[in-house]
């Protein structure tokens, strides 16, 4: 394969795309996964790296991606000179133009860079690039929809302090608030409050210290406690799970844009760490079953780089 | 007045206390206020400094207090050699023993240091040192009660992520969540959501940037928007204010410890930036009027240093 795309004869756009080596990267706030794929679809190398979130830790995100790229390209030299490779990247936190520019321009020498949000990569990976809707419920929460005209929308994904309604961090924070309200004697004790207070620490100083250091992931890590309490019959815990399902159902409905046309027959996916936990509760609310995804976010990155799915273009 | 307390004849504890020069400091997360008071009650000097919160910014808090102390002592030299002065300090964030030690040991050379929480200083300042209850609703929220045996309790004050139920930061965060839910089309639009979204920024990137930098104080600064929307008839905004009043009323009730005895006839105070806003709503809920405080937190620091109020001793 020639590294020089200028020599190609235009006209068969997909053909051109198919002849490129692609480095697909699904970059997340917890870890990155990467796959280097030859034009014929052969996986040349794959690997994992640390957390990559340009909006909260720009320098760290650049370093993590750089290390991952270097390892994979070096493993497969000489056939994967960077100049012949398309980097196709699904990553959160590129909404801000300055941050986007700083992050992408730090990775030089590729034939092309295709960048999209991690949620969009998951959406087109799930649908094979066809119009579809996706709700992701993990530490955070976001909804995505791809329209027939190739444009897309995102709803929520505002993060821990402003939204991520119904997410693990959202659930954990509400559970902690309820538990400390009981601890204060401002609400009745419950199984949930007892379990959580015991988990946060022994005594006021330990609890305050936990709160001072707590990240969204720490709050989301409390979800199994909420589930256990709900299963043991705790009404407060069950109400929290119901409220999360309410939020997720509202997020599904918010993807029905008035100018987006009907979504009848269009697949609807649910992904993320909380999907199994809340699937049935959400399905009851929206009176619809979720579809089974065709592939993951790395597949979405490959599809976008090959021109088999639209590149992300937000309405 | 002699600087050497060892020369005094014991027996008249209050008398001894009254003969000391006191540097009272009300140290808050927004600013510090300090007053240097001679044994006869004459104010020798007073001043203000920056934010002082040992739990979130230990070094900054030490530096701010140090600068304030130095300025006041130097202004009034030679009569206020540090060794003859009692530093009496109301400050948040001293629950953790290590942080408390680090903060207090950084201020050396005083005849004595009397340290209490800022809320306790406000409580005894309000009651003149007598048993009483106090709810503080500002950027954060906490309840305090002093019992007849000299011990006291605190409720809430867990901070922005774990509690501060009904506070300005709590209100602002809930309002932002509601506004972004409307912005996402997952809830109906309201006057509140329109005002807040306009205030957070123009477009998704600006809003995300606001959220990324937002402090509890930033969230609390949105309260006037909530009030304006509620006054214009916005139901969502009014429901938020009602929910905050519910939380504050529950906080008042949580101060009735089962082992604390009746609080009949004991004064009940409401302080903080949200007190005027929520006073009537809370009074309706608790079927009781709040009392008028006798003095402020600086007065509380002076009382504790003079032995006219118990030093803080938590149950």
Automatic annotation (TrEMBL), chains A, B:
<keyword id="KW-0418">Kinase</keyword>
<dbReference type="InterPro" id="IPR052519">
    <property type="entry name" value="Euk-type_GlcNAc_Kinase"/>
</dbReference>
<protein>
    <submittedName>
        <fullName>Glucosamine kinase</fullName>
    </submittedName>
</protein>
<keyword id="KW-0808">Transferase</keyword>
<dbReference type="InterPro" id="IPR002731">
    <property type="entry name" value="ATPase_BadF"/>
</dbReference>
<dbReference type="Pfam" id="PF01869">
    <property type="entry name" value="BcrAD_BadFG"/>
</dbReference>
<dbReference type="GO" id="GO:0016301">
    <property type="term" value="F:kinase activity"/>
</dbReference>
<feature type="domain" description="ATPase BadF/BadG/BcrA/BcrD type">
    <location>
        <begin position="25"/>
        <end position="277"/>
    </location>
</feature>
<dbReference type="InterPro" id="IPR043129">
    <property type="entry name" value="ATPase_NBD"/>
</dbReference>
């Amino acid at each position: 394969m020639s590294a020089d795309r200028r020599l190609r004869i235009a006209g068969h756009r997909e053909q051109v795309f198919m002849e490129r080596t692609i480095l697909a990267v699904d970059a997340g706030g917890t870890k990155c996964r990467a796959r280097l794929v030859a034009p014929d679809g052969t996986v040349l190398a794959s690997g994992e790296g640390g957390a990559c979130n340009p909006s909260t830790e720009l320098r760290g995100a650049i370093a993590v991606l750089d290390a991952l790229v270097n390892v994979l390209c070096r493993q497969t030299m000489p056939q994967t000179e960077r100049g012949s490779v398309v980097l196709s990247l699904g990553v959160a936190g590129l909404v801000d133009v300055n941050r986007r520019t700083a992050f992408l321009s730090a990775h030089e020498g590729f034939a092309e860079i295709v960048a999209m949000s991690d949620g969009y990569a998951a959406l087109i990976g799930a649908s094979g690039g066809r119009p579809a809707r996706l709700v992701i419920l993990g530490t955070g929460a976001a909804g995505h929809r791809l329209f027939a005209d190739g444009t897309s929308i995102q709803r929520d994904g505002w993060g821990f302090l402003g939204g991520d309604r119904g997410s693990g961090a959202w659930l954990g924070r509400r559970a902690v608030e309820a538990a400390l309200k009981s601890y204060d004697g401002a609400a009745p004790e419950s199984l949930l409050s007892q379990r959580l207070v015991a988990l946060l620490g022994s005594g006021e100083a330990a609890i305050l210290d936990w709160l001072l250091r707590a990240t969204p992931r720490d709050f989301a890590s409390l979800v199994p406690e909420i589930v256990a309490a709900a299963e043991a019959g705790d009404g407060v815990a069950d109400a929290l799970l119901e409220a999360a399902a309410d939020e997720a159902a509202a997020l599904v409905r918010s993807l029905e844009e008035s100018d987006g046309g009907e979504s009848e027959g269009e697949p609807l996916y649910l992904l993320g760490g909380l999907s199994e936990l809340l699937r049935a509760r959400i399905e009851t609310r929206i009176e619809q079953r979720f579809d089974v995804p065709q592939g993951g976010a790395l597949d979405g990155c490959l599809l976008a780089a090959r021109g088999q799915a639209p590149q992300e273009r937000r309405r």
